[in-house]
Amino acid sequence: MDKEEILLKVEHMSKRFGITKALDDVSLELQKGQILGLIGENGSGKSTLTSIIAAIQSADVGEMYLEGKPYKPASSADANDQGICMILQEKGTFDMLTVANNIFIGKEELFIHYGFLNKKEMIAEAQKALNKIQAIHIDAAAALGSLNFEDRKLVEVARAMQSQPKILIVDETTTALSRNGREVLYGIMESMKNEGKSIIFISHDLDEIMEVCDTLMVLRDGVYIDTIEEGDFSPAVIRKLMVGREISDNYYRTDTKSCKSKEVVFSMEHISCKEVKDVSFELHKGEILGFGGLGDCGMHILGNVAFGLTEPDIGKVKAGTGDVITSPKAAMKHRIAYISKNRDQETLMLSSSIKDNICIASYPKIQKGPFILCSDETTFVEEWSKDLKIKMQNANQYVMELSGGNKQKVALAKWLGYGAEIFIFDCPTRGIDIGVKSNIYQLMFQLKEEGKSIIMISEELTEIIGMSDRVIILKEGKISGEFNREEQLSETRLIDYMV
Amino acid sequence: MPEQIVTADRMQGIKDKRGKFDFRTIFPFLGLLFVLILFGIMTKGSLFSKLNLKAVLNDGIYVMIGTVGFLFLFAQGALDFSVGANMATSCAVAAIAANSIGPGAALPAALLTGTAIGIINGLVYTKLRISAFITTLSGMFILQGLVLVILDGSVLAAPISMLKWFTNPLKLTILMAVLIIGYIMFQYTPYGKICKSIGSCPEAVRQTGINLDFYRAIPFVTMGLLVGMLAFLSLIRTGSATNNTGGTLMFNVLNAALLGGLPMSGGPTTKFRGAIVGSLTIAFLVSGMTIMGIETTDQQIVKGIVFLIAIGISFDRKNMKIIK
Amino acid sequence: MKKRSLGILLSLIMVISLLTGCQSNERATEATETVQKTEEETGAVTSVLDMEAYTIAGPFPDTGLIGFDILRRTLELTMAASNGTFVYNAADLTADGVLSFVESEIAAGVEGLIVTPPTDSVLPTICTLCEEAGVYWGISLRSIADEEIKAIVEASPYYVGNCYEDEEETGYKAGKWMGEQGYKKIALISQAKGDTTCDAREVGLARACEEYGIEIVAESRGFTQASDATSATESFLSANQELDAIFYAGTAATRAHEATVKAIQDAGREEVKLVTIDFPEEMGRNFESGIQVYAIGLPSIPYDCLITIIKVINAIAGTPINDDGSPSSSTMSMLEITSVEDAFAYNDALYAEGYTFYDEEIITQYLFKWNNPDLNQESLQAIIDEFSPLN
After folding, report:
1. If you measure CA to CA, which chain C residue comes closest to B245?
2. Quick check: C100 and B58 CB within 8 A?
3. A3-243 to CATH, choices 3.40.50.1100, 3.40.50.300, 3.40.250.10, 3.90.79.10
């Protein structure tokens, strides 16, 4: 390979945190015009690697070279100046400031003339930056707090692109973006590629990664495993490299029958609420009912309404008995459980212990008189976390310290402990490692076998197809298609109904 | 945040917990020990004389009981600014009751008034959805004016016979009862746990089918009840209700809460012992400084520094890490 | 790690500030040293009694208003001349606060206490506490209204008495003067109802108003700053074309009186006069402008604290004011100022550098009973009556 072709070179990099080896002798070569995907489970080291490249932290050992010359950034601002920008999954913007302020944060001197900050100029330049990335719908003078989550992310992207980086690092940013947002990002990446600039791309979404990247580099436990070129992409191979063992074909369910009983355990009648327009359906005992669609099709709101969290403008939510459900408490009385797609903000109490999280739904069950004894709590937790194999130190550990998959298991344990019979899962495997994902699918199937019923709302078509007895596709708030498991569904077919 | 960094931080956090050497948990005890030893030495032991301990108890009982009530609010991340004015109002009503109906009516009158005010606070907070800050701050102003009307002036004396009720057995019984009941409620009942959970993530509590409004309002009611008790104590100690009664309660309780390491952000790391340790620390701190003859202005400076230290150390990083 | 070092650093700062605080307030020992020095320097005033070192605590600050500065300086002399230390404990002013003050100071080992009780009902408790501890105590700035309590307190050998000003009488005097000038309509400025001082003054004022037929046409209360006075004055002036005077029963806002004077001048209504209880800071100028015509006030509030302290000192020394040890009650009369010369003279005297109520010679010769066996309630009252910064 030509030396000039190589934009970034990382050699023999290692980093420890305490006794943990986050990176162990990892090397990387990024060519000009290359979109390199970094894959690995949580703890693989991919984020550590990119954060060192973006100078958010420094390596213990190792050298980096940018365009052939030694690259030792003093700070992330320095890295920016040298042409390396990174955007993250989490919030990187300031609500209180305007969009323009956010884009030029730290670079205000560009607009200071004779001691005064020329706001108009800054706003104009900011709008240019936004237009350049095809985000013309965002007003550069607006307050950031007035934008929705996705637009805020786009502002971050505009900020990164404004400095015309040579290397853009995208770290799990797409997870929370809708199709639109992702298209914007892919567009940027394409044009950078055409200009001979490069991208390092991290995502949990295998399909996306395979679609977008030229090359994939796999890390596991801080160690470099392998590099795969575009032609050799295959989900099975990639999964195997990531996890280090065969993931059996039994990833999803193996059966192809959509068995369901006639008994209706839950129904929603003519529900209209925000984006949702007149949706009706029934859920049967022992059925896994999958809901799919584009991000804003209304399925997430549907889940919210189903649990009684939001009152529908029109329509009724009914339990199997015919009782109308108007609050979470009423829903729970009918043994309905709900795990929101924003599990960290709405389902789990991150700064509380595992014990508190699991027990909170079941205090009436656990308490003896007015009191709750520690021993009773511990027993309860053990009983319900055992089967789920939650990886934790002890029940008093804070939930925020767990990995995504284990957090989800804690949420599940809570509802299983409560004795739920009907589960509403919204994006149940979002941001979760492959290994744990398969765990959760097995669990869902097990619940079904036990006669429990599940509503699964997800943006991952493969998982809906893989797990559901019946699939309902929503488009712009209305039901656009309903399919049974027997019909040998494929993604392409379903997408037709989504867009 | 890059996964790896979070994982490593977690490891550190886990290790910290295992070794139990979390500075933040220990700080309140260290603080108390430091104050006791330092002032014990500098006052040549008179800090612990019988007379002084009595003085500390008389002064400190208000803070201790007040802080216990505050715990349930603090755990949720809420505050009640009206406690001082509530105390004055309850004391005034109790004095009137004692004078017109009889000394036996003082306690019920105080408790009822305090609780009623607490109920109003709770309702305004949950039903009208006005922040605790504004609700209780306005309440404070309203009550301060109300007291003057009730007292028709600034002072109302109660029957002198009530002064002799302020005995050590009574004080200690009330204090112990509040501490024990408070402890049990905070640690071992759903009520306490839910308060802490609300401080951790209110939405998650709501999505577990728990009536959020109810559990948000109740701490104000219990606070009101305890304030009523304090109003009664003040009445039998001083023999009068004044418009100034309870004037320093709010500030002292805040001091005690912070010195006790109660995190401002609330949540499950709010520890009951923080209330006790904090109140004891502030009580002995002030007592020690008084015995040493330190100027009140200097006392303020010391209190201020201690306040800052406590805030700096007790600020709960964990709760702040979560991006809400 | 960072938090740990921060904590340690701040703890160190606290210790250091404590130590320095400790230095400047070491009781007993310092006082003894000072006494020895004084005796050597002046080489004369020998005490009949050899006073053992003692401490008195009082609930006021050692600075802030000019009055407290003067008191502090006077006390420095007084304490030095009698082997005593004074502790300023300006704790909170609530009834609970007063009791805490008494309890903690007794526990700290004082020999004497001054209290300013916000209510009479705390007095029996204070009385018992002091008796049990053998601590002499006196009341300043107040008198006991409740007869029952008065009887209890005055029966105690440890209660030395009080010194107070008759606020009601003051209000009456001011009202009387206005009545004699022929004023018929006045605007009243005062503190919020519940302020005992102002309440009492208003009672006296009301009495005079009734006697002389003066009508209070407007009121404003509770100023916190000078601008409050400006707005109130402006509204008084615009709402009332016939106004004889603006009357201050009392205010906590600094320079409120001066703001009123200016507002009157700005509105061109110099015929409206300013009458105040308590002396304004710029009293001389106020009088000069022709707008302020009368002021009645204490030569300086903390003076009566001094008197009470003197009583306590004498009691501790074993030479109480009244030979039979019974408590003595003294009243401060209010000084009336009605001329520009007096106004200036008053301020000049008060704000003079190092001004004290009395100089050391007078204190030791007249106020220490062991040097002045003729000192008793009547003669003390005579001394008080004579006191004026104008002398």
Report:
1. C94
2. yes
3. 3.40.50.300
